[in-house]
Design a protein that fits this description.
Blueprint lengths: L2 E7 L7 H12 L3 E7 L5 H7 L5 E6 L13 E2 L1 H6 L4 E5 L2 E5 L2 H12 L8 E5 L3 H12 L4 E6 L2 H11 L8 E6 L6 H7 L2 E4 L26 E4 L8 H8 L3 E3 L2 H16 L5 H11 L3
Parallel strand pairs: 1-2, 1-3, 4-6, 7-8, 7-10, 8-9, 10-11, 11-12
Antiparallel strand pairs: 3-5, 5-6
Helix pairs in contact: 1-9, 1-10, 4-5, 4-9, 9-10
The chain binds NADP nicotinamide-adenine-dinucleotide phosphate (NAP).
NADP nicotinamide-adenine-dinucleotide phosphate (NAP) binds next to helix 4, helix 5 and helix 9.
């Protein structure tokens, strides 16, 4: 029986995950397909329940469902519980388990693609959704000295900080600021060693396409700028940082590394990250 997997999100039209997983399944000789399941919030429960069919390996979960999906699953892995977000559902027998491979995917890309050691560094996150939770956890685990989260909804950001505080070791401060009051500018202009865009701003096919979440003139050349957005290949945030002479990378490496982790959870096999990178680049027309 051909196995099925896919991505649950809204929107998902521009996802390159079908190309990335399709190539990896083919290279590994696994008879499986990968689909893009556009899932408005009111249809999320039904979509998750459909994964209980015997032909389903599981699903990836993307914007805006990474936090809300927990309510419809049977179990959570340790890293999904710790981050408070799910980017992978594993269908194992009767059970649907939420997992989070974004944490390891981000940590690996930061280390291997950007050559950045977060230990003792001040990190600033733009956005407070599911991906920001994974990034914050990765930075806490890497021993960052400050994890500073900026967002639009004070109650929501505070919840992220409260959830992560018990996991934060002495020597790491996790805190937040409201985007609207401008207090984050001091951090952005001078203190942050790492700035991570955890919003969809700049993503092709959305209302924020072509925009950087922060203007180039506020970006310091000494900092590293990491955009979770990977479409287009050179995102507006990356282009703005580079125009200031700063080092910047997009989310393509993270996409591939988290997908490779998910592939292993679904199939028990290692994926070829080279095959996945080639498929991702081809999918983006690079
Ligand atoms: P999410 O849970 O919906 O969170 C999005 C966050 O961005 C929320 O905090 C939201 O604010 C904020 N936001 C949205 N539009 C904004 C705007 N115009 N201005 C300021 N803030 C805005 O989504 P997510 O799952 O965290 O994903 C975020 C992005 O990361 C997406 O583009 C996703 O594709 C990308 N991502 C990439 C990878 C990768 O492997 N490269 C992995 C994970 C995610 P509110 O809370 O106020 O709504």
């Amino acid at each position: 029986m051909t196995k099925r997997a896919g991505v649950i999100g809204h929107p998902v039209g521009h996802s390159i995950s079908p190309a990335v997983y399709g190539a990896a399944f083919k290279a590994a000789g696994i008879d499986a397909t990968y689909e893009a399941w556009d899932t408005p919030p009111e249809t999320l429960e039904g979509r998750v329940n459909a994964l209980r069919g015997s032909d389903f390996l599981g699903a990836n979960v993307t914007i805006p469902h990474k936090v809300a999906i927990k309510d419809f699953l049977d179990a959570m892995s340790d890293r999904a519980t710790r981050s408070g977000a799910v980017n992978t559902v594993v269908h194992d027998g009767e059970k649907l388990t939420g997992d989070n491979t974004d944490v390891a995917g981000f940590a690996r890309s930061l280390r291997e693609d950007a050559g950045f050691d977060a230990a003792g560094k001040r990190a600033m996150l733009l956005g407070s959704g599911g991906a920001a939770r994974a990034v914050a956890l990765a930075l806490v685990e890497a021993g960052a000295s400050v994890v500073y989260i900026v967002g639009r909804q004070p109650k929501k950001i505070e919840r992220v900080v409260l959830d992560l505080k018990p996991l934060t070791p002495a020597g790491t401060t996790i805190t937040w600021a409201y985007w609207g009051d401008g207090s984050y500018l001091k951090m952005l202009r001078g203190e942050a060693n790492l700035v991570v865009n955890c919003t969809p701003v700049g993503m092709m096919g959305t209302s924020g396409a072509g925009q950087s979440p922060v203007p180039a003139e506020l970006m310091q050349p000494e900092a590293l700028f990491f955009d979770l957005v990977y479409n287009p290949v050179e995102t507006p945030f990356v282009a703005a940082a580079k125009s200031r002479g700063a080092k910047a990378i997009s989310g393509m490496g993270m996409l591939v590394y988290q997908a490779a982790e998910t592939f292993k959870l679904w199939t028990g096999q290692d994926a070829s990250t080279n095959v996945m990178f080639d498929a991702a680049k081809a999918g983006l027309g690079a």
